[in-house]
Amino acid sequence: MSNKSKVAVIGAGFMGSMHASIFAGDPRAELVAVVDSDFARATALAAQLGGGVKAHASHQELLAAEELDLVSICTPDHLHLQPALDIAAKGVNLFIEKPIASTIEDGQKIVDACKAANVKLAVGYLLRFDPRYYKARELITNGQIGTPIHIYARRNSARTEGPKRYAGTLPLALHVTVHDVDMVLWMLEGQTPVSVYAQQTDILLGSIGTQDTIAGIVRFSGGTLVTFESAWSLPAGARHMIDARLEMIGTEGSFEVQCGDSGLYFADNQASREIDTQHWPTIGGQVGGDLRAQLSSVLAWLDGAPCQVASGEEAIRSLELTRALVRSAETGEVVRLPSAHQNFATRKGE
User: Fold this and answer.
1) What is the CATH number of the domain that holds 81?
2) pLDDT digits (tens, 9 = 90+) for 152-166
3) Domain containing 59: what range?
């Protein structure tokens, strides 16, 4: 499409407000509206963005009032399904913040609806646009690592971050570990997970309905072993708000992706903290970083360019493996996974 893409954002919270800001500032997009069930919040965001952006209280109201090319869904994960189905039925392309849904059943319904309506579907796994992870994947695809032997993926954050926004809604793994699950599956293209064992704790955060940490080991079909470690129980004073890294050992080489240090550390007489320079830093009054690169790629994709954003099918695979980690942690049992091309979690609600 040669004209500006007409875009709407559903969800005016932490992530949705950044999506709206990025689309509003991109010359290839026309941000038509923002939507939130808290209409006052949607109205405030629309007013802040200016430029004639409208506010709506529901996706139904949005679809009845606007002609659109793309809708970005940034609602809580368990609220993705109905908006996605209704938007696809209208013939409008979809971008959905990770994970695609809170259950595999809902995720598959979204994928099927988009296929039936012949609309594009992309799911936001931000690490694909982090140059550190992207270049690490190139080392694999270029053959410099050889056959992957072992991967260690860590993503730990402060108790003042994720739990403050998401506690009690979905398991820790669906908010945090799923990022690394998608990245590992992207890097181990051609392999499929065959067994999963995980454990979790809720010593600190159990009282607010979530887990402190989850740790799991996954065996892949090519023999590669992957260790996942995720937590959002670091103390509030931790230097690293997100302490993340990914290490791979292969038959010909190894690499380390170190993401704990943003490169900019600030302290005064009251507090000390790192300032984000990577994912969504505000530069010159505009949201930049990996998130801008991701949404820019989506707009280019609408105009026919290749896109590295995760597909619906890839998002289902990430959700399946993450759900298997959760199930193993909850039961204490090893989860055996069927062969590729077959969903290994077909039970309702999995």
Assistant:
1) 3.40.50.720
2) 999 999 888 788 777
3) 5-127
